[in-house]
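Q&A FORM
Asked by: J.P.
Topic: structure of Protein meaA

PROVIDED:
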Amino acid sequence: MNASAAKTESRDKPWLFRTYAGHSTAAASNALYKTNLAKGQTGLSVAFDLPTQTGYDSDHPLSKGEVGKVGVPVSHLGDMETLFAQIPLDQMNTSMTINATAPWLLALYIACAEKQGLSRDSLSGTTQNDLIKEYLSRGTYIFPPRQSMRLITDIIAFTYTQIPKWNPMNVCSYHLQEAGATPVQELAYALATAIAVLDSLKEAGQVPDRDFARVVGRISFFVNAGVRFVTELCKMRAFTRLWDEICRERYGVEEEKYRRFRYGVQVNSLGLTEQQPENNVYRILLEMMAVVLSKDARARAVQLPAWNEAMGLPRAWDQQWSLRLQQIVAFETDLLEYGDIFNGSVVIEAKVEELMQEAREELARIEEMGGAVAAVESSYMKGKLVESAAKRFRDIESGDLTVIGVNKHTETEQSPLTSGGDGGYMKIDSQAEAEQISRLNEWREKRNHDQVTKTLQDLQTAAREGKNIMECSIACAHAGVTTGEWGQALREIFGEYRAPTGVGRASATSNDINSLKEVRKKLDLVSTKLGRRAKILVGKPGLDGHSNGAEQIAVRARDAGFEVVYEGIRLTPAQIVNAALEEDVHIVGLSILSGSHGPLVTEVISRLKDAGLSNIPVVVGGIIPPEDAATLLKAGVAAVYTPKDFDLTSILADIVNILDTTSAPP
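REPLIED BY: S.T.
REPLY: Here is the structure written out as tokens.
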């Protein structure tokens, strides 16, 4: 077929243009949304801060330092109304990256629309609502897996009748890749999650059999695309075919439109580098091409990270640059004028078949375990991700995986993009948290407390009796209930959960042992000096659930010969200091990627001093700007590591030297 014959009769519509945005306050985020929409963005993608994501109010002790840092704080209906002020929700397609509190944020969104005078069926958008991947990667879960599954199905059963244009779930493989998933693992674990949800929905009986195919058709996916362009493109074609196969064979869905693999994408943030960050622009472009070039597997919505996200929050100009990249590809090129340009490619077809076969095999293993929930509870999937991430770290260290500017071609000129007074990224207003707490207190004072009490009691009754909680949650929203109150009401019914870390399942390779030989030798000498085996506490203070780095340090420290204490995510500084005291550790390592390192680290150091443990050195890792690193060092931190410090063996050697020079026997 020649090129002209392959050309379509009319130009295809482009995908939705989005940027993932939200910071500081609802008012500041609203201004950013309106600015981006005026620049040609066609959909919203809301980033919520960690207290909102984990069901806490902004003034909860665990929220300290986290308010407005990685997204917008939404504590009640007033915040939601401010967030969408002068944005007509019936004309907007809104994606909300929210999981444990998805029923609540959707309830607030519906209540906000109703306050605008809009009907529920006029709304369109997506709630991510994928709790399974939260246990594996991002860590914003609250409740145990089976109770979380029940809340997922409540949203699905509610939306398909009340908000028929809404996607009630994004099965999210994006964060699986960020946690180390290979393409096969991303395929298998995402599809296993979708199967678990649909099976649970059938068992719950909230959807009649006659409507089940229509509900299947509302399930969407949110994927990742890395820089290995051909593999990622083939992965998306494999996703499309495997989903069609599952819908047809497992669920008997006959209508093709209900079997379509509908997905949005944010391209890879894991591969963005702090070193030579201008190179990230090329990475982002190549990653986007993997999900838009193949028409038969093209994304429905695309949001791109900004070039500087390995350093800090993007500014409005940085987001505009990413938006313009999408618009140039969609409107200036001839991409949307042709059919699928890869059909008939022997190379592409062979790779797609290979990925599909390996994914089917992994799906079969998960099925034998009892499905995705069982594979979470047993730590099978988490352990596999930790192993895959460990391999990636090893390959970068050894040079087997080339990353330009990091382990090859590291010589560079000074970048004009980072030489300005702001360092090349946005800094959050230090007063934003206090102002948010003040507004929250004012909100509590003005509402009808009897109505709040009644709606929360109704919510707990519905949860206890197994009824759908959505209508009760919407009533809570209108009554003025806060995010923390909604979360606490359900914590009292469902309990809380601490997921397996997967660290114990990761095994060292012979290469790991060889690379650590000198570190192990030095650590043996230090341990002799201390009178017992050196012990490190790896801690995750605050609400940041991105545990990849902490897990890899814990695994590598164990392989180097340390005794390792790692209790997972979401700990208060008080809990970390208490663990240091009870476990009698020699050094504390803190991992924080949410930008809340300042208040959390200084509180840990202060509490260590109060507990008589000021002799224990503290090292810190995270996305920490140079000026913040200097402040932490001045406050008593022994060393600061950022994404540029990719060599874990060198970090461990450094930690052993710190321990040798600063720690005395207890």
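FOLLOW-UP: Residues 501 and 568 are 6 Å apart (CA to CA).
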